[in-house]
UniProtKB/TrEMBL annotation:
Its cofactor is FAD; heme b. Residues 498-582 form the 2Fe-2S ferredoxin-type domain. It catalyses: 2 nitric oxide + NADH + 2 O2 = 2 nitrate + NAD(+) + H(+); 2 nitric oxide + NADPH + 2 O2 = 2 nitrate + NADP(+) + H(+). Gene3D superfamilies: 3.10.20.30, Nucleotide-binding domain of ferredoxin-NADP reductase (FNR) module, PK beta-barrel domain-like, Translation factors. It comes from Nonomuraea aridisoli. This is nitric oxide dioxygenase.
Length: 582
């Protein structure tokens, strides 16, 4: 069988160059330009291309991108993109992704290739296109292109014909593969279809198997809400209680990563719908089978004492005790200790101690294997407000690799320096510089927003690379590096050159979308609305709203799958004028 597949319009290659991606400088050959004449193709790809990105992955030797997709992007973006913009090796005239099948074999002259996988964009594309949300938009556009491995080497040049020489019967298209593995919530039937494909490369097979386990509930996680029984309740500090949660049948609850949280749906009297709130897992319950969370009663803000105090935390303090049942979604979250060799510094204040405690436990359990020194630095007002102080001391005493430094900003009369705390004052970058043997470390930060801004900017100004500083907000997320000037930023325009306007339909408010605003949720809050939200990172589903008109793209890809016509406003940005049901 030999069928016409298309033609090579340009052969593009890139030199390895430094590129700054999310604060980290990497070397990449992403920036590709068309080159003249015939170019040799070997198993690793074009010989003229600097293979720094996928050097070892022969299944991704050559990236193809279709001309018809360039036409669509040029139209949408209102500019003429040169071939090579998307980092592809070959810009081709040829079928779209729904007509390109996994395992298809193509010939370009003597070069024989096999189609291996759809292209999934990375952060480098955001830098190349000058738009942070572009990779997500690219994926959702379903104009992704595809990779080939090289079966027979040879020469390619622009103008060459491409022939389809072999097609696998009942195969799966690149469009379907991208949809099943990257766009839709895991689905057993679709994943089984993917796994049945003989030509599936090992990396994709591993991914599909993992998704299948999740879809079948075999990864330990559960989908939707699950009733958990409160088996113990303890006062950990003056405004903090911990709750032990167990499966009512006594089944051991699945493992979680230190730093992840549970999402609770709370029926609070007087609220017209369940309140969704997230609480970090501080560890396992006493018997090792359940979970423990710790909840701080949230007071009204100091500058607005007349507004009501926190509803969900107030309810958990006042009305939830041993024997109560709570509805919880499975542990989720990306704030977890990354593997590595650098020392780890865990920095927290107030209730921000919860993920740090889980991480300290995890690192303490790993200490011999990892050999990483760990510094736990925490600030509280006094021993009355300090939760889990004794637990931290016990853990730290278990290994020479673990260290702690506790600061009290207003020690109580009975607090003894050297016994109950190590220093009077607050945690600041200057304190860190003084107490840490070196600033070369991986940092994890959690606490009130002002505290986080101070610590994170302080570390960056002292030369700690951004990619070594990780943080999590318990409330409204904000930029910590001062680049998010929202209220006075320039108004963004759509492809038609007109200002992008966001209409919050239920509230009857229409506001311009300004560049650098983080998300539709942030815009709604600036407009004085208080939409439901909790994790603010696309994980819990609390902020999912109806979108009645327009299109969005995602700054962070939400892990919480939404139905058509819905949007996860905490991490979405409008790409056209939109109407949201808020
Ligand atoms: C990833 C993550 C992990 C978390 N982990 C923990 C944890 O381990 N422990 C923990 O205690 N919390 C944690 N939180 C925070 C928790 O999810 C809740 O946000 C917190 O308990 C407050 O919820 P609430 O319903 O009590 O307060 P809300 O009712 O949501 O109120 C929040 C604040 O807004 C104020 N407020 C109310 N009305 C107004 C108004 N009209 N105008 C202005 N302000 C107003 C309230 O007084 C209060 O100060 C976490 C959050 C996230 C995102
Ligand atoms: S607030 Fe959790 S998904 Fe948006």
């Amino acid at each position: 069988m030999v069928l016409n597949f298309g033609a090579v319009l340009s052969v593009n290659a890139g030199e390895a160059k430094p590129m700054t991606v999310q604060g980290e400088t990497i070397t990449t050959g992403f920036d590709k330009r068309p080159i003249d004449g015939a170019v040799q193709v070997e198993a690793s790809g074009l010989v003229t291309d600097d293979h720094v990105d996928d050097a070892d992955d022969l299944d991704r030797a050559l990236l193809f991108y279709q001309r018809s997709y360039y036409d669509s992007w040029n139209n949408e973006l209102g500019r003429e993109l040169p071939h090579g913009t998307f980092g592809e090796n070959l810009t081709i005239e040829g079928p779209e992704d729904d007509k390109v099948m996994l395992g298809d074999e193509l010939c370009i002259g003597e070069v024989r290739l096999r189609v291996t996988q759809p292209r999934i964009p990375c952060r480098k594309m955001a830098v190349r296109l000058g738009h942070e949300g572009f990779p997500s938009r690219y994926l959702r556009s379903r104009r992704v292109g595809f990779f080939c491995s090289v079966m027979e080497p040879g020469l390619v040049r622009s103008g060459d014909k491409i022939e389809l020489v072999h097609r696998v019967e009942d195969g799966i298209s690149m469009a379907d593969l991208a949809r099943v593995l990257h766009l839709e919530p895991p689905n057993v039937e679709s994943l089984n279809r993917v796994l049945a494909c003989f030509a599936l490369p090992p990396a994709l097979r591993t991914k599909a198997e993992k998704l299948l386990r999740r879809a079948q509930g075999d990864d330990g996680a559960w989908s939707g809400d699950r009733a958990l029984l409160v088996t113990a309740r303890r006062r950990e500090a003056v405004e903090v209680v911990s709750l032990d949660l167990a499966d009512p049948e006594g089944t051991r609850l699945p493992d979680f990563e230190a730093g992840q949280f549970l999402t609770l749906s709370l029926d609070v009297p007087g609220a017209d719908k369940p309140l969704v709130r997230t609480y970090t897992l501080v560890g396992r319950s006493e018997d090792g089978h359940g979970y423990r969370i710790a909840v701080k009663r949230e007071p009204a803000p100091a500058d607005s004492p007349d507004v009501p105090a926190g509803i969900a935390s107030g309810h958990l303090h006042a009305a939830v005790g041993v024997g109560s049942q709570l509805l919880a979604r499975a542990p989720r979250g990306r704030f977890a200790v990354k593997p590595g060799h650098r020392p780890v510094v865990l920095i927290s204040a107030g209730i921000g101690i919860t993920p740090m405690l889980a991480m300290l436990e995890h690192l303490a359990a790993q200490k011999r294997k990892s050999g990483r020194p760990v510094h736990f630095v925490h600030g509280a007002r006094s021993s009355h407000e300090l939760a889990f102080g004794a637990h931290v001391r016990r853990l730290v005493a278990s290994s020479e690799l673990l260290h702690s430094h506790l600061l009290f900003s207003r020690p109580a009369p009975e607090d003894v320096l050297g016994r109950h705390f190590d220093e009077a004052g607050r945690v600041t970058p200057a304190v860190l510089e003084r107490i840490l043997p070196s600033l070369e470390a991986d940092y994890y930060v959690c606490g009130p927003a002002e505290f986080m801004a101070d610590i994170v900017t302080g570390l960056i100004h002292r030369g700690v690379p951004l990619n070594q500083v990780h943080y999590e907000f318990f409330g409204a997320a904000r930029s910590l590096l001062g680049e998010e000037k929202t209220e006075d930023g320039p108004v963004a325009t759509g492809a038609d050159g007109r200002p992008i306007v966001v209409t919050f339909a239920r509230s009857g408010i229409a506001v311009p979308w300004r560049k650098n605003t983080f998300s539709l949720l942030a815009l709604a809050e600036q407009a004085g609305l208080r939409p439901e939200a909790s994790c603010r990172t696309g994980l819990c589903g609390a902020c999912v709203s109806r979108i009645d008109d327009g299109e969005v793209e995602y700054a962070i890809d939400p892990m919480y799958g939404v139905q058509p016509g819905q949007v996860t406003v905490c991490c979405a940005r409008p790409s056209t004028s939109v109407m949201i049901d808020l």
